[in-house]
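Researcher: Re-running this chain for the archive, since the previous output was lost when a drive failed. Same request as before.
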Amino acid sequence: MLVRVIAFYGLAFVLTIVLGGGQQAAGLSQETVILAQWGPGLAALAMLLLFRSDSHRITVFDRTVRASRYVLAALIPMGGALLVFAINRLTTCAPGLGGSMPIPWALLLWFPLGALGEELGWRGYLHKRLNAGVAGLASSLIVGPLWALWHVGMYQNGVLYLAFFVLLMVSYTVVIYALVADVGFNVLVASLFHLMINVTNLLFYSVINDARFILVSSLVWAGIALAMVLTRKTLFTAGRVTP
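Model: Regenerated structure tokens:
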């Protein structure tokens, strides 16, 4: 298991660098497309070829998944964003919305593909692979930090920011696990959640790199994740989840 995790993570980093470098060389603006988001997805596909004996399958779509699951995947990020917005407005220690930084709405055209590229790797391969032998909470505490630290662009915001960013990504991971663990780690469900997170984050675009903002956001989502764990203890504490 450890070999698979290391191999996948190494491939994800290498392919992310290659894609990012290729985008820069081609002169493609990051306000319209972020090719590096497909690093994890391509790493997942490479793992399927390299370790075919694992018989690992990535579930992109399953018609048996109820529409309500997709609705939840879309509504939960919206609810989290509303809480973050409300707390930002009510407290004096957190920045509000707005500012002079332009919001790259053109990115909305890329967001669905970018979310799919990441979730093929993080949920379709890595989390599902870990789920074969690790309890849900433990696997989420592994995938979350790995997912967070893959975002190397966040390192420039300092250690404090990065610490809260890791907490935020672990919280996201816990919530996504609750949505996909019992439906075969359905990539489309995870991608919809990921997409809505990215869309709602555009509302906070001018303060997204502010440590005070990430503090509020990470604590709100940690609360949501804790609620998920407490209300679905069996899902998170049991071993392998069978859809």
